[in-house]
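Task: fold both queries, return tokens.
Query 1:
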Amino acid sequence: MTTGDLANGAETAPASPPRRHYHLGVLALVSVTAVWGSTFPLTKDLVARLPIADLYAARFGIAVVVLIAVRPRALRNLTPRLWGTGALLGGVYGVALTLQTIGLAELPSSVSGFVTGSYLVLTPLIALVWLKTRVSRPTWAAVGLATVGTASFSLLSGPVGAPAGAVALTAVSAALYAVHLVALGKWSRPEDAYALSVVQILTLAVVMTVAAAPGGITLPHGAADWTGVLYLATVAGAGTFLAQTWAQAHVPPTTAAVVIAVEPVWATAFAAVLYGEPLTWTVLVGGGCMLAAMGIVARPVPEERPCPESPVSAVS
């Protein structure tokens, strides 16, 4: 579920030059949401045959091997700050992903996608409390519009017939995604994007492997399952982590949250095309609101400000 620094009461991005990098960051996040959206129905299909921890142990194990193979020196000379920050971010993301996947096993892909989208409301609130942020009026308008889109689906069609426990787990995962989103925006720097992505994925691989080890790790069976896992590992794993980490060094957290809120639209589209899940008027209205919200935040270019240190920077 990948920002510039928010400081001195304004939501800002740290990169230079701001305009080109800001818009490239938004475009990168849109691409990330499309890939993430495709993982909802695919993951739902795979967890029917593979335990959750085993699936993610294979997914992130392959992803970290790919990243290190591309840059063999990626983990050399890393500061304690990067190790600590990456491990913390990876841990938060791992818990969120696990809870979301447990819920997804009992929910339609579209319902899971839109409930996950509730992080959109939490992101500016967390940024306000943690970073003392003042979010701009257009961004708040986009948050409100995207929230209406989320509600039109999750309230009007999501909870009906959906297990309350699965919805609750997915909602908790959404809160953790919001924390990860704000934290990544606070601590990510363009020059550290690759190393930070590697440490996060390495943390996920270790945690999931430890969780899967007691019962023995079950590997995918057959070409179709291996193809799905490889897609999750490379495109939806290594690729999206790199893209999000770089993008959030240039795009403020709340803006990034609005852009990423389009993910459920992609999830619903893939679920409808690949698995025949129905499209209702609530889904279409919700998706339209979210796309409109993304259009709002894609236009303004925030001011530049330096990125603050992470809480573990003192040991570096």
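Query 1 returned. Query 2:
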Amino acid sequence: MINISIMPEKYDIAIDLNLLVVFDAVMAELNVTRAADKLSMTQPAVSKALNRLRRAFNDDLFIKIPSGVKPTPKAIEIWTPVRNGLADIRQVTQPIVFEPATSSTTFTIALNDYIASLFAVPLVQRLSKEAPHINLRFIPSTNIDAPDLLEQSEIDLAIGALSASKPRLQTQTLFTDHYVCGMRKGHPLAKRKLTLDQFVRADHLLITLTGEPTGFVDRILREQGLQRRIALTVNQFALAPAILADSNLIAAINYRSVKHSPFAKSLHLAELPLDHDPIHVRMMWHDRKQRDAAHGWLRLLISEVCSHL
């Protein structure tokens, strides 16, 4: 029996690690039958393990509902430290040697379509040559949810305009970008240098991954007592160049997202009439993966691919 030093309240005992593995599976599936299948256990064995955990924590942990089970507040409270602890233990027990040519590891990466459009193709090309059996899963990211997804072991990496907001998160800058003001080539504002007054009075398109109709431009304008009209919001970077090329909207947009767009030749790019910071695109991961050989290999590969963008 392997014991782990997570002590339930009011109980000075150590909990069998296998019980926590069962708890993690039930939390992930919210269904005892599916958790049993995932663990290659019988349903009665999973139920017996849960009963032991209930006694240890003096809490029901799960309540039966028609679709399966619902976690109690106590179960939700302990899940993140339990999942993090299990991930750390799995890392210690994994083989140190990693062979990309034969590995069939699956990596989940949270990123937006702007980032994916820049490096997905060269990354897949490298993988096809060096690690043909590696699987990648790209999921959408708003940057706001990325730290929580990493904390909960839902993803392996997040890539975007990120900063480490939690103590166990690591970051590495992959490349930088900057904002420009994009508009169609025949736009009335494309004939001369764009002024702040013209910029504010124009109709704007805003790329917002969260759906909120405000961005860094609006924060800067508010500080100067100014406000712009946001006529349209979209949640994908790839849509912006196409819309700008066939409308009178303008947008503060990442230069690289226009540069690599098929509509690039139809757009006029003006200097943004606002002082703003550069965009630092970073890769973020949890430090439980810091010494993971497979994870380190992937980080190095992504870093190399992005160095040629």
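Both queries returned. Flag for query 2: The longest strand covers residues 169-177.
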